[in-house]
């Protein structure tokens, strides 16, 4: 069975939105330069947070033989004029001290990171490989399609 995802994003004010999932979680979205809408995430920050969170969940499963309670995942994105409104470069840094008590820790953790990006993290794999995107208008017609 294929996985399906659904998020509802609702306008809550001028340049402020709230995204909700079916389990009741919410996140506030707004422009970074709108002081009245803070604290909030920008859409790009949410994309980077999703990559870090997805990577962390995969590491929890694939590298469970290594104690990684202190793991911190930092995701940085950058774009330049040549990137035409996209993030041109993303760096994901997995930061923590490998335990001395497990001689295989470095290999196990490296395998977990590799599997995150090669196989299991839906978010990073979608960013890395792209996805078909279809935008539907209120009358049900397609307003945009790519991929």
UniProtKB/TrEMBL annotation:
Enzyme Commission number: 1.11.1.-
Protein name, as recorded: OsmC family protein
Entry's Gene Ontology molecular function annotations: peroxidase activity
Domain of life: Bacteria
Keywords: Oxidoreductase, Peroxidase
InterPro entries: KH_dom-like_a/b (IPR015946), OsmC/Ohr_fam (IPR003718), OsmC/Ohrsf (IPR036102)
Pfam families listed in its UniProt record: OsmC
Alphabetical list of Gene3D superfamilies matching this protein: 3.30.300.20
